[in-house]
């Protein structure tokens, strides 16, 4: 479905791009503020997998006869901190394996991203998180899921999270349908 678009048509296509925000993602005020400030279109929708996705609103003049969802091509999972992710991994020991079910659903999605807000890899290694989870076990689990799901993991400052989500969606759009 790759096509060539002139700059004018590309800008028009971007105007039809809508970032999908999962209805369960509650702590995203700064992200939505960034979207609104930069006139990035978004809407809430119950997503099967991940916190953010991508769609193109119908624009027949550009070849999209109906709303087109890219939920099989892109999944963005966001965590507020390394502590939240460590807690998710620790909960598996308490028979709460939601994070692994989420990651398993991501296996068949072409592009997977795990965005961790504010922290960095050093916070895992130095055990700078609220959990009894051993840092080596934490890091191994993260690397295992990264490899298994072909997942891209980024540590992103809170003030840049909206921009990062937007650029990931735009990049997915570029690689899926352009040139």
Shape: elongated
CATH architecture: 3-Layer(aba) Sandwich
Number of domains: 1
Structural class: alpha/beta
In angstroms, what separates the terminal alpha carbons?
10 Å
List the defining traits of the structure above.
41% helix; 179 residues; single chain; Rossmann fold; three-stranded parallel β-sheet
Brief summary of the model shown:
This protein is α/β, with parallel strands linked by helices and 179 residues long. It has 7 helices and 7 strands, in the order αβαββββααβααβα. The strands form 2 sheets. Strands 2-1-3-4 form a 4-stranded mixed beta sheet.
Please explain how this structure is put together.
GO terms for molecular function: DNA binding; nuclease activity. InterPro entries: ERCC4_domain (IPR006166), Restrct_endonuc-II-like (IPR011335). This is ERCC4 domain-containing protein. Helix 2 crosses helix 7. Strands 2-1-3-4 form a four-stranded mixed beta sheet. Helices cover about 40% and strands about 20% of the residues. It is elongated and about 55 Å long. It has one domain (about 5-175): Rossmann fold, CATH 3.40.50.10130. The mean pLDDT is about 90. It is built from seven helices and seven strands. It is an alpha/beta fold and about 180 residues long.
